[in-house]
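ok trying again, last paste got cut off:
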Amino acid sequence: MMASLFWRGLIILPLLFVYVNGEHFLYPKRHVGKAELAGYKGPDSLAVDGGGFYSGPLIADDDGSAAGGNAGGTTEVKVENLGKVDGDNTNGNANSVESTQVAAKNGISNGNIVEAKTTFKGSWEVFVENAGVSAMHLILLPKINQALMFDATVWKISKMKLPGPPCRRIEGTNEEDCYVHSILMDVETGKIRPLRLNYDTWCSSGALDSNGRLVSTGGYNNGSDTVRILDLCDTCGWEEYPGALGNGRWYATQVTLGDGRFMVFGGRDFPTYEFVPPQGQKNTLKDVVDFNLLVETHDPVENNLYPFVYLSTDGNVFIFANNRSVLLNPNTQTIIHEFPVLPNGARNYPASGSACLLPIMLKPNEDRRVIPAEVLICGGASHDAYAKADLQRPKVFLPGNTDCARLDITKRNGKWKIINMPSARLLGDMAVLPTGDVLIVNGAKTGSAGWDDAREPNLNPVLYKYQTDGTGSKFTVLNPSNIPRMYHSSFALLPDAKILIAGSNTNPGYLDDALFPTEVRVEKFSPHYLDPNLAMFRQEIIVEKSNNQVKYGQKLTVQIRGNGEIDQQKLQVTVYSPPFVTHGISMNQRLIQLGIVEFNKNVAPNTNNIVLQAPMNGNIAPPGYYMLFVNYNGVPCRQSMWVQFLP
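nice, full thing came through this time. structure:
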């Protein structure tokens, strides 16, 4: 037993000794009092290839077209003349503005959706020069429109000092740490408010509750079994509850269920899951459930940490780890289905691909028994990428994966549909845009997650078209940033439909002289739909005349104001749940297109009312706050509106 633990200790990340700010320190022991690796049978029981097996065929779409129909009465949208995907990085500001209308398919609910076409490939701006912390974790908080960013306390340093006492007392040594490790940033002004942390948040997880509070779980060392809560007010700070979890949760994934409860899956050395206890309560080992998928998919260098976890529209939970995926019934705690293995390498940490749940498309007066839900997984690395980059000398940086795979998780005969991206990517992020398309951003082209373990920053975002008519590419390469966003990068979709980009730290500490220095600058990216020539299509939501709280299945009215006559066929209304973003995983990111029940024109000059139906239940949209966007001609409104869905 001691021998196996010794060899395991040699290969896990990070290594035994870490260099931090000019000092060496011994890699601390795990939080005491927690059972070691419940259900773990030793490294000899773990399959090198992730332990997967093929339970069904694959479909490879070389031409990038989507296989299968658009069940549920959705329309397809089109940007004409995408042409060959290449690295053309011209700004394309002098764009002609046209509209392309594509015939509706399969019983369309709202007629045709029209999207203005543009050759604009996005623009970048540095929003804040020094955020104080490098945003290892990032989430936009509802109503207050502030971005919460935090890293880890283990390094005892950042780029900002606390405004005054008390400083944090470090467990075990009682030395003082007077640096900021968590901030709130106003996404319009850039104003920063420091927050105090006591329990280490390194590689933690989180989700918003039904009232918009962040409930965060896990972390490192004294934070590994901690639950922490941040409420929404001008003076609110972290409330921390150490010892609340039954297992330590370091590199774990948190998911919100349809009734608002949270589950947390995995974490280093704990192939288990548990339900997050209510505030102030504590789990014991009796509340922890062994989860063999996380044992069977454990490579010698892991590759199954931070699993991709999504609530399906039928209430089951989809879990993807390494290269395998299952559906779990959270009520009976049984696996009800395993999907085909996804080939071509590993996808989870430290191979670190990225994933998202694609848009959930609803009809007005929705009555379907099953609402389709699809997962998209892109990039990653070979199973031995971390071993080559971190454990081998000299380091070898293997190429990352170039493929994207799509799967309908509501179909028991679901098959992966695989297409190639324009370039390799790992350590990236996938932001679902208000229109339903996906922005693939950040990351590298070679190597692995880990300290100084990746090379070749992938500076160009790529737009993935969720729906096409099959004549153009599904991918468009957009304009690059000049700031590498490598390991520990993050993003947030903003109310004005821009994308906040932050983080990047390949160093165990805050280093300015590294190959990739610790990054504290924050950028904003304006996607293609923010072409200045399309500004005429941006509607304004009249919040005081709109419903911002609604129960499941009920009607809600949103009032919009714009320039000139509005064509209902060009309208799209979506709601978006802000994700907790870290390590290429966007926990609980969810975009839902609502069905338009009525469209009442000219209730006032240039003003119209849209009557919508709220999602029918929490499995489609877990209770809580969503950003509601009205898109016209494929262009999002000027500012989204926060709407709360409740049982």
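cool. The CA atoms of residues 348 and 605 lie 52 Å apart. Residues 537-645 form a domain with the Immunoglobulin-like fold (CATH 2.60.40.10).
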